[in-house]
Amino acid sequence: MNWTGLWNRHALFTPLLAIVLLAGCAESKSTGPSLDELDLSSLAATVDTEAAKSSDTPTTETDTVATLAAPEKNNLKLGFIKLTDCAPLVIAKEKGFFADEGLQVDVEAQPNWKTLLDRVINGELDGAHMLSGQPIAATIGIGTEAHIITAFTMDLNGNGITVSNNIWQKMQENDAKLKSPTPPHPISADSLRPVVDEYQASGTPLKMGMVFPVSTHNYELRYWLAASGIHPGMYTETDTVGETNADVLLSVTPPPMMPTVLEAGNIQGYCVGEPWNQQAVAKGIGVPVTTNYDVWKNNPEKVFGVTKRWNDENPNTHVAVIKALIRAGKWLDETDADGKFVNREEACRILAKPNYVGADYDVIKNSMTGFFYFQKSDKRPMPDFNVFFKYHCTYPWYSDGVWFLTQMRRWGQITEPKSAQWYDETAKKIYRPDIYRKAAENLVAAGQLTDAEVPAKDTDGYKPPTEKGDFIDGVIYDGHDPIGYLNAHTIGNKDN
């Protein structure tokens, strides 16, 4: 039982409980219940009802959200993949935010994204750190089919695109500006184009790794390549690998295996989350040429996902989990007066533990504390490389879901044209700001968030259109116009 929350529920609770206890202790014929016999939850509910009846003022929304019903399920198992952006789950556990909600949570690493999704669907996991594309793809029937929802976006940015030393040297030969120890950024794929042509002429196309067919990494890598006229391949009804018309072959590799596979020469580059780009720098086997912040400034990355059925059976538990995750994100992004992260080094030490990310503390710290190493000679400040709370990033924006749907259509995973209305309706089946807002408003009522830290109540769930420089190719994204966005690109499907 969450004693702290119970004792603080209403000012009326303490005197009423005191009366009951005194009655039990008084030397009279009346015999009150012992403390062990008291049903405190029922007593609190009685106080709530009586307070509402006796109040001279109408019940406000703040009054409504001040307390939440108890979780239906207290013992939870949540899955994650060994990446630094699992941090909100880990921190919610390690800093006691889950416990504050009356939840006993086990956080368990999974071997790959498919296994993680399958275990959520079959109930072995209550929920998980997921690729943003996984709830969407599952719900619309790409791959494993199940209705998955998300009420929480775990982070922005956090990925990089790394190439082998050999490929980097060839890119430098094609662009003299890249020969500097600190070349200008962002680095496009323009200097990679002749390398791709060289590999194709040899009969062995260039190969690059990404973590899953519906991952942000797949779409970001495709976006970066296509922006320079390099075709990353199309999915078709008969080509589920996505190699039709491809100039570069993209294959799935689990994130922790990326550096090993690159070093072995099985791939010549990859797109992955941290710390596996920084690992390539530390081992001296590759060079990160860009981050996804430069492909799309402040792009959504991971989400917390559950099945709709699980949410329907455990709505209070779900809200409690989201409350803890919001607090964890805020803790991770806390800065001092000089803008320096207050808690990130502690977070890196926690994530470095073998049962979490299991990489060296120094490697995790490279990107998590506001910097990023492109080369050992090229350390750059990137305070927004990992964003866990600010910019209202944890809110489940419909426009984020629509973007992923456009990429699935652009590259052929969605095989038929869809209307703009379909994009909107589909995003709203999956992204659940109503659940997020219930959690957030409860935190506001408790003084743990401010109103300004929650999106305005009159938002329609869509972010404003991007600015000209937000995407590496300069294309503007407006979630209200998915068809126009699709048609603005040279490579990929276009719809009427």
Description:
It is found in: Endomembrane system. Keywords: Cell inner membrane, Cell membrane, Membrane, Signal, Transport. Its main location: membrane. This is Nitrate ABC transporter substrate-binding protein. With 496 residues, the chain is of the alpha/beta class. The protein is built from 22 helices and 14 strands. It has a five-stranded mixed β-sheet, with helices on both faces. A five-stranded mixed β-sheet has the order 8-7-9-6-10, with helices on both faces. A hairpin with a 2-residue loop joins strand 12 and strand 13. Helix 16 packs across helix 21, helix 17 packs antiparallel against helix 18 and helix 19 packs across helix 20. The longest helix has 19 residues.
Write the topology of this structure.
Elements: H1 3-7, H2 13-25, H3 40-54, H4 61-65, E1 75-80, H5 87-94, H6 97-100, E2 104-109, H7 113-121, E3 127-131, H8 133-140, E4 148-153, E5 156-157, E6 159-164, H9 165-174, H10 193-202, E7 206-210, H11 216-226, E8 248-252, H12 258-263, E9 269-273, H13 276-283, E10 286-291, H14 292-295, E11 302-307, H15 308-313, H16 315-333, H17 344-351, H18 361-368, E12 371-375, E13 378-381, E14 386-387, H19 398-410, H20 420-430, H21 433-445, H22 482-487
Parallel strand pairs: 1-2, 1-3, 7-8, 7-9
Antiparallel strand pairs: 3-11, 4-11, 5-14, 6-9, 6-10, 12-13
